[in-house]
Amino acid sequence: MTGLALLLMLAMAAPAFADGTFFFGYTPKPTARPARGFAVGFNMAVVGFEFEYSNTDRVDSANAPGLKTYMFNGLLMTPTTAFQAYVTAGAGFYNEANLNNSETSFGTNFGGGLKFRLAGPLRMRLDYRVFRLSDSAIEKTSQRFYAGANVAF
User: Is the pLDDT of residue 143 over 80?
Assistant: First the structure.
């Protein structure tokens, strides 16, 4: 009987939904420079998955490389609706480039953030990430802060 009850609970899992975010932010080191991108995710109660693309501008005068990331992330979220906190970790590819060279390789990231409901499906998303790039990268660790418009659908 317990097994049947467990099977019924799994079959009646919470409905899943998706969301998309367009964001603007910055990468602070070695000099502050703008970052922008988007994320598209699929969320189920407290677990979610997303693909995220980000592009950080390069600043040649400070030898600050440009960084493009293509990451697949897992998220653990609070099961609330008006306010949602989350932690995330993931992996994917990146391209880092300055005037002298360019590198495409594998990287990881972790971080967290908040989503606040504004009106209907529209939410505001605040996010912080730390990226770990390969040993041959110019900047082996990169941080990013952003704010974005998030729409649940």
Answer: yes
